[in-house]
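User: Some background: our group keeps a shared notebook of sequences we're curious about, and every so often someone picks one and asks for a predicted structure to add to the entry. Today it's my turn. The entry only has the sequence so far, pasted here. Could you supply the structure so I can complete it?
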Amino acid sequence: MMKKIISYISFVLIIILFNSCGSTGVNGELTGSKTTLKDWRIPAPAGMVKVPEGSFVMGANGENTPYSSGKKRTLTISSFWMDQTEITNDEYRQFVHWVRDSIIRTEIYENYASEAIDDDNAAEVAFSYGIHRPVSDWKDLTEDEPDADDFENLDQGLIEFVGLNWEQRLDPSSPEYQLAVNSKLIMSSEEQLSRKNSEGRDFFPHFQHKKIDVRNLKYEYPWMNNRQLRGRVSDPSNYNRENADNDEIGIVTPETVAIYPDTLSWIKDFTYTFNDPLFDRYFWHPAYGNYPVVGVSWNQAQAFCNWRTALKLSATSPELRAFETQYRLPTEAEWEYAARGGREQAIYPWGSPYSRNSKGCFLANFKPLRGNYWADGYIYTGRADSYWKNDFGLYCMSGNVSEWTSSTFNPLTDVVVGEINPDYQSYAGDGDSPAVKRKVVKGGSWKDVAAFLEVGARDYEYMDSARCYIGFRCVKAIGAPKPNVTFEEQTSPSIK
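Assistant: Of course. Here's the predicted structure to add to the notebook entry:
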């Protein structure tokens, strides 16, 4: 009897296993992959506010709006995250410091890795700055202190170097730190001497001391050249698998950008003006930490967005990286939609057609009256969180600094773009016309009159130019719809 019971149970288990393994649905019906994240909630990125989806009439509402985008038209914009303030000096310094430290860490590792096979001390230093991973059944690297034998295994391909160890503290007084800085970041003695003697006097005396040559602070990253991609799609004959990785095709384009702001812009932009204190201190001094970064070109702003995305992904678990979207510059339409704050006919972000409130206080940092820069509270830039937020919770969408967008400037943009999330871009190469290198800037700045503060106003600057009155802020696509909302709920007036 017991054998019959066991046999029956075994038969039932086999049937259950057969029906569960390889099942494609209940009773053969389409049920989906079961990977829907029903309770998914989109976390708000730090320092950003949500700009809700909606539509607006793009174009000038004032009579004398500069560089108006042409004919008014209704556009529909998807929701996105946007920085509440312009990117500040303190935030951009984090980028600069990361690039500086990555160069130092890489140089330390490479210097000591070359000697590690013969020197246990060099092996220990190299391993402390680099992350390694076994590629065979070799011993765990954490079992013992790293030594020369470990690097012999690395040389033989038993382990691999997979990245920098950012947990290792940098000690500026250590010999490995000094060696890396002197070889990669400090201006050479020959160049210092040539600069000193170029005009028969001490040219920039501080160059006589060991200071980082900021021209060496370069950030490298790849980006997708959509122009090349569109050409390949329109003409498939240009593509074959054999030359898919050919650099001449250039779909994935490597980019190297010197990322230190052009602090000289404070002097270059205003001839015969004593802006030397701002040239000397504006970017690095702690007192200006919450002020918007300036002297940053469009290319540098793009590099910052790429780094910010990589920084976020490095701290995100592998399971959730697929749900992250990249940081980027806003399109012209996104910027104008956000600046209006939901006010359809607004001339300025605050809704009023006037630059003052009822108490007579100026509502933005610009060039008021007949050039009395101090009348609004700031002679130059002000804190990034100055004045009042618009209805979307965004500061300084007009005034303070003009802001880069991702869009290419074209007087007839309204003729060529679509009505849903319009995005007019061109990818300028070295041999392209200067016209395609013009990028739209919005919002007006501390040195502009009120007309440039209008939300429909637009101006342009060349993508490789850096000005002391142009900054930027980032946006980030939402990436997923509002969860668990039915069509009836979506169309209900109670849904916000």
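Suggested note for the entry: Residues 89-113 form the longest helix (25 residues). Residues 231-249, 489-496 have pLDDT under 50 and may be disordered.
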